[in-house]
Amino acid sequence: QVQLVESGGGLVQAGGSLRLSCAASGRTFSAYTIGWFRQAPGKEREFVAGISRSGAITAYGDSVKGRFTISRENAKKTVYLQMNSLKPEDTADYYCAADLKSVPRRVEEYDYWGQGTQVTVSA
């Protein structure tokens, strides 16, 4: 089992950057794929990025490709989401999630979720 805590959200102007962190507790962090999802008001939760257990495989949602980068440090039990060139449409609550499968993209495939961190991008 793994517990996840997100941090790093906040208010930023369009074109700016933020780095989100997902800190995990539990002895088997390196066994889990980690995904980032986001949910804007009135919208469904969507896949943003995912990273495999070793970090060798990454995947991104179409709307963030080329702007966001996911990475992980297993020794620190932390996954990062570097977000550059932010747009107002990136405004959402961002969640990290963990699963034992290899980089799934669907919400229902993840077993463990954090509480989320809010990102607001002003125009």
Task: Produce the secondary structure layout.
Blueprint: E1 3-7, E2 10-13, E3 18-25, E4 33-39, E5 46-51, E6 58-60, E7 68-73, E8 78-83, E9 92-99, E10 112-113, E11 117-122
Parallel strand pairs: 2-11
Antiparallel strand pairs: 1-3, 3-8, 4-5, 4-9, 5-6, 7-8, 9-10, 9-11
Please describe the structure with a list of short key phrases separated by commas or semicolons.
50% strand, four-stranded antiparallel beta sheet, 11 strands, mainly beta, 123 residues, seven-stranded mixed beta sheet
What can you see in these coordinates?
This protein is mainly β and 123 residues long. It contains no helices and 11 strands. The protein has strands spanning 3-7, 10-13, 18-25, 33-39, 46-51, 58-60, 68-73, 78-83, 92-99, 112-113, 117-122. The strands form 2 sheets. Strands 2, 4, 5, 6, 9, 10 and 11 form a 7-stranded mixed β-sheet that branches. The chain has a 4-stranded antiparallel β-sheet with strand order 1-3-8-7, with no helix packed on it.
The general outline is globular
Number of strands: 11
The main β sheet shows up as: 7 strands, mixed
> Can you write the helix and strand succession as a string?
EEEEEEEEEEE
Structural class: mainly beta
Instruction: List the quaternary state of the chains.
Output: single chain
Share of β-strand residues: over 45%
Runs in which pLDDT lies below 50 for 5 or more consecutive residues are none
| DSSP summary: helix tally | 0
Query: Average pLDDT across residues?
Result: 96
Measured distance between first and last alpha carbons? 40 Å
Rg over alpha carbons: 13 Å
